[in-house]
Design a protein that fits this description.
homodimer; 300 residues; mainly alpha; Farnesyl Diphosphate Synthase
Chain lengths: 300, 300
Amino acid sequence: MPALDFHDYLKARRSLIDHALERYLRGSKKQPQTLYRAMHYGVFSGGKRLRPILTLAAGEIFGGKHKYLLPFACALELIHTYSIIHDDLPALDNDDLRRGELASHKIFGEGIALLAGDALLTEAFHLMSRPQVAQALKPKLVLEVLHEIAHAAGVGGLVGGQAVDLEAEGREVDVATVEYIHVRKTGALILTAARVGARIGGATPKELRKISRYGEFLGLAFQIADDILDAKGHNGSRVGSGGAGDKEKKKATYPSIVGVAASKSRAQELLQHCLKEIELFGKDADPLRGIARYVVEQVQ
Amino acid sequence: MPALDFHDYLKARRSLIDHALERYLRGSKKQPQTLYRAMHYGVFSGGKRLRPILTLAAGEIFGGKHKYLLPFACALELIHTYSIIHDDLPALDNDDLRRGELASHKIFGEGIALLAGDALLTEAFHLMSRPQVAQALKPKLVLEVLHEIAHAAGVGGLVGGQAVDLEAEGREVDVATVEYIHVRKTGALILTAARVGARIGGATPKELRKISRYGEFLGLAFQIADDILDAKGHNGSRVGSGGAGDKEKKKATYPSIVGVAASKSRAQELLQHCLKEIELFGKDADPLRGIARYVVEQVQ
């Protein structure tokens, strides 16, 4: 897929996802007002929509319809948004800025930011369990996918990774620990985003295994790329009260252990693994290829 | 049901619930360790298990089996526990003590306490969507009940009530606002606990309506009783860093607006409504009667 086409693809999918998110959030009647505003601000403050786009792109390979994929795609984005709002709180990373915009707690206060995160996490499960979703798909499949997303978001995934990351702060850690953190904190949700698309789309077990391997490699590549951007100061959008980025905070990152050059070649290696896993899907998997290249090549 | 019998009933159900909670938490392999310890501490620091007992008691009326009721009963307790851990954080109520014990963030730090709350909320949905649950019950029913619980925990319930409560702090509020807060912050989960038991147990729509009315009245009675205990200083177990209880913080409470005496008679009135709604269930509803009396009579 030529670069321009992929750019158009991303733009079209982002627009689809943004409209769906707007619609789902509005469902909560915009009450209580401040809570609604904080939820809306978090969801619409410049996210790249990587996770929901992955769900759509993986689902499309198997003929999955957008209207069936979107509730799950958007639930993943709500979960990602909640994790960012909580992560930025003074209790955790204490970041004042996110993507160049003020963090939620700097606008709405810590209390409302905390509650907006709680509300978005809860809303994700509320959204996936809507009667309309169960009517369109098999309830058993909906429950299985919801369970998988809960796993990826919970102690075995996102929250568990956050906890280990928090405890590793300021300590010397090895590559194994960094990968343990990455696989859970970032990898689990990215892997699940791809898997959920494939499952809702109707992938066979063999096809699902391929998509899963792609998702695992992509998750790791994504976090390494993000760490490289941090090391280069290109993620300067995330600035804490003390102006402390990951490096100053002695966060466990890939480049801080193996260096930037080795991190780049690891990311390239992971990209090649990604591409190999989805070879069999031919042209239908071009968006998945575009996403993997987009993630890795921004840091080369 | 004589007082002693009801006491035995509570004890037996609490033991059942505690064992199930222990089993479900252990499922997460106790890793990461600190996070697991914080989750375990929150769940086992003296909760009365009102919500899960309500689910069992309502379910038993219709012949619901404990093994089918317990995942939902325990999910409700996990959600209640998460809300308490987050509520006690400095960003919200800033309470150092809860039920006479140190609040989670005073032991594990604010970061881990925040994450333990997030993990418990996520685990609640992970638990309800387990394959074993869907195999035993109809997946459609499981999804409907999960959806109802997500609603009660979200912007239309618990979190929404918390947000309005936070914004009402220090302001003059009327009885309508206090009831708005109560219905969402406490009432929604109590109502849902009773309803979920009835639904899993197999109540007819008419029976479910009766249980719902009981649950609504009980939820309001519970919060009024809790406010009276606060006003009397009998909830002294909850003490903030500044030693500020609800009264000092100018929280919106029932007794602070209508006085303690009027609050007591309102609670009595609600108890009578509770009892009337479940009259038709005869002796089978004795535990629900016992729960309503237990809630209201402690403050008379």
